[in-house]
Design goal:
single chain; 588 residues; alpha+beta; DNA Primase, Chain A; DNA primase DNAg catalytic core, N-terminal domain; Dna Topoisomerase Vi A Subunit, Chain: A, domain 2; 5 domains; five-stranded antiparallel sheet; five-stranded mixed sheet; 16 strands; 10% strand; globular; disordered C terminus
Length: 588
């Protein structure tokens, strides 16, 4: 944070509408001065995620997440703090100063990489629409039923035939060769020196991150060239297993539809989107990864896969079963007519046929059951073995109602009793939940004392409390390290607004804790005099305890003259008695 001044961050916050920002990812409804919705950071059915635009903060009373606009975007889009600042500064229309210093020198400079990818995307687009050679790709798109409007919306492009078209264009635009190599747009020659274009004679599909910035490309051959699809390698910008094609364009439709449709290929995705299924994304040819599942959980709790109706599509459906079933998401599988994929089905039979397939999608575990040959299920031993294979999947279904239906269906298909199936699933749940012997026991978090919580809450909500108590309160007066950190931040910035204060605190847990306290308004103004007595009493008890411990230690060591220690102990004990008798102080 040091590279950005507090004044600059406050300016960005002031120009942002936090409700508008969060609404890009969460459906919010107004409740008084707050807005509430389902938390994007954990699965829940009852809204506990709260945004307070006046204070510029958010907090989830379910999982404890909390913070300001920067913290929200960092969590939501997995950004570093500087990346979140840059993204929100662009959104707010605030110019950022040139970044300097050792921290910047040591961090990867991603802006030139993004700029290079944007330059390439623009070049490919112009080649598709403006160059005569692009007619070959335009003709292909027409044949596949992709309209110009759809092609432009997805920024499709064309890489001309030849070895150095993009290379020479980039050089002419002042782009260094090392940048082209870093983002995978060029390749080093196998023999001799030099580099050449990776994509040649291909229809280009740009792949963007959640901010809409181009991070990779997919290229489809327009003839017999192999491979049919050629994709960017993994780069500092692009990790295949952490990306889903078209998600930046689909995320709002996903939220509105309450589901996401996942297809295999670029053209399947374009065809479905064009046919009105705006909630469609493509998996980029990989099995589902935990990172991709987390991306989708931000927007929906239901996934429908619609892969090709062939052996490869069936394999793609079943890859990543453990990740999907253990994700907390409802996962269903759409069955397409034999030999069809979403693109061909829509072209031949229209959007209605694809909708029927989606509406008839069945739970994922049922597709797994279909994989057992009939001869295996003829014997009791075979059925039991099949149950053990599929039982591990059933054990990962999080919803109790869905799990019960799954057990009933398995029992019916395998001709086994429900009790037998249920016992097997229960056994497997125990195995999967049992921690590994080598796993270290979790370190319990220190409990929060009522004194710490009440004092910090009053300091957060009352300017008078800060003015009167911060000069006398020390960090040592609090027992919990998190609350000590809050008091330290308040002492250094006693007039800080809530969002500014959160940015001074390090760590998501601490920020979430304070955000919750900020949203939990006290029912009455703090009693400053009572707090002074309470703090004095607390210190008196600590001093009395120290005096008692010193006296006990001296006695155990056989010290002869204990008069000074006895007097000190008596003085401290009387001080505590007088504090208690002289005025009622809240219990600590």
């Amino acid at each position: 944070m040091a590279q950005y001044s507090a004044e600059l961050l406050d300016e960005i916050r002031a120009r942002l509408d936090l409700v508008d920002l969060v609404s890009d990812f969460v459906t919010l409804k107004r409740t008084g001065e707050n807005w509430k919705g389902l938390c994007p950071f954990h699965a829940e059915k009852t809204p506990s995620f709260t945004v307070n635009p006046k204070k510029g903060i958010f907090h989830c009373f379910g999982c404890g997440a909390g913070g300001d606009a920067f913290g929200f975007l960092m969590r939501q889009n997995r950004l570093s703090f500087p990346e979140a600042v840059r993204a929100l500064a662009d959104r707010a229309g605030t110019a950022l100063p040139a970044r300097q210093g050792q921290e910047e020198a040591q961090s990867p400079k991603r802006e030139p990489l993004y700029e290079t990818m944007e330059l390439a995307a623009t070049y490919y687009e112009r080649a598709l629409w403006d160059q005569p050679e692009g007619e070959r790709a335009r003709r292909y798109l027409r044949a596949r039923g992709i309209t110009n409007e759809t092609a432009r919306r997805f920024r499709l492009g064309y890489a001309p035939e030849g070895w150095e078209h993009l290379l020479q264009y980039a050089k002419g635009s002042g782009v260094d060769e090392t940048l082209l190599l870093q983002v995978g747009l060029v390749l080093p020659r196998h023999e001799g020196r030099g580099i050449y274009d990776r994509f040649r004679g291909r229809l280009i599909f740009p792949i963007a991150d959640l901010q809409g910035q181009i991070i990779a490309f997919g290229g489809r051959s327009l003839g017999p060239e192999e491979p049919k699809y050629l994709n960017s390698p993994e780069t500092p910008l692009y990790v295949k297993g952490q990306t889903l094609y078209a998600l930046p364009l689909a995320k709002h439709a996903v939220r509105e539809a309450g589901r996401v449709v996942v297809v295999e290929g670029y053209l399947d995705c374009l065809a479905a989107q064009q046919a009105g299924f705006g909630e469609t994304v493509a998996a980029l040819g990989t099995a589902f990864t935990p990172a991709q599942v987390l991306l989708l959980k931000r927007y929906t709790d239901e996934i429908i896969t619609a892969f090709d109706a062939d052996a490869a599509g069936e394999s793609a459906t079943l890859r990543g079963l453990d990740v999907l079933l253990g994700s907390g998401l409802r996962v269903r599988v759409a069955t397409l007519p034999e030999g069809e994929d979403p693109d061909s089905l829509i072209q031949k039979q229209g959007a209605a046929a694809f909708r029927v397939a989606l509406d008839g999608a069945e739970p994922l575990f049922l597709r797994a059951l279909a994989g057992f040959p009939a001869e295996v299920l003829q014997s009791f031993q075979g059925r039991v073995q099949a149950l053990r294979n599929v039982g591990a999947l059933l054990a990962k279904i999080p919803d109790p109602t869905e799990a019960r239906l799954a057990i009933q269906e398995v029992a019916h298909r395998f001709a086994l009793s429900e009790t037998f199936v249920e016992e097997e699933v229960r056994r497997l749940r125990g195995v999967t939940k049992r921690p590994a012997a080598s796993s270290p026991a979790p370190v319990p978090r220190q409990e929060v004392s009522p004194f710490d919580k009440a004092l910090v809450q009053d300091l957060l909500h009352s300017a008078e409390a800060r003015m009167e108590l911060l000069p006398v309160v020390t960090e040592e007066d609090l027992s919990h390290p998190d609350f000590r950190a809050v008091v330290a931040a308040l002492k250094s910035h006693p007039e800080a607004e809530p969002a500014t204060l959160l940015s001074l605190l390090q760590g998501e847990i601490l920020q979430g804790l304070v955000a919750g306290l900020l949203l939990d308004e006290p029912s009455s103004a703090p009693d400053i005099a009572a707090w002074r007595r309470r703090i004095e009493l607390l210190r008196g008890k600590q001093e009395s305890r120290v005096a008692h411990q010193a006296l006990a230690a001296a006695q155990s060591q056989g010290q002869a003259d204990l008069s000074d220690l006895v007097r000190e102990h008596i003085v401290r004990a009387r001080k505590v008695r007088d504090l208690v008798v002289g005025g009622e102080a809240p219990a600590s």
